[in-house]
Amino acid sequence: MFSIYKYGKTLFKIIGASLLQGLFLFLWSLLLIIPGIIKSLSYSQTFFLLRDHSEYTMFEAITESRKMMNGYKWKYFLLGLSFIGWGILCLFTLGIGFLWLVPYVSTAMATFYNQIVFSQDENDTSDKTIIL
Questions:
Q1: pLDDT score at 11
Q2: Which residue, 48, 17, 66, 59, is CA-closest to 115?
Q3: DSSP 22-41
Q4: Quick one: angle between helices 33-42 and 73-81, nearest 10?
Q5: Does the pTM exceed 0.90?
Q6: Which ranges constitute the DSSP H helices of 1-132?
Q7: Who wins on pLDDT, 129 or 13?
Q8: Domain range annotation of the chain
């Protein structure tokens, strides 16, 4: 779980990417709230990309996340909405339910990332076989 923090350079890259992502989202939110929400969905895979590709810079990870989420933003938004009921239910337990909900949501988001990567890899290999 903490293997990404093994090297100090990666830790600074994650902190920098978080600050950069926050700055970008703030600037997009200055236009209106909706562009900020759309860009937050676009940038949502940044930390997963930094985990899988530690050679990426902060800007490359954010850009790759934006490219990766083309066509998947609505599905990711609906996935996030599906946890609202669980969040409200956790409030009735005075927050104790969040001990189970937070890992569940994190796992669902990681699975979403894995499915996107798998579907894009599958599309890349199918395109290569057609060209050959």
A1: 76
A2: 48
A3: HHHHHHHHHH-HHHHHHHHH
A4: 100
A5: no
A6: 8-31, 33-42, 46-52, 58-68, 73-81, 84-92, 98-131
A7: 13
A8: 1-69, 71-132
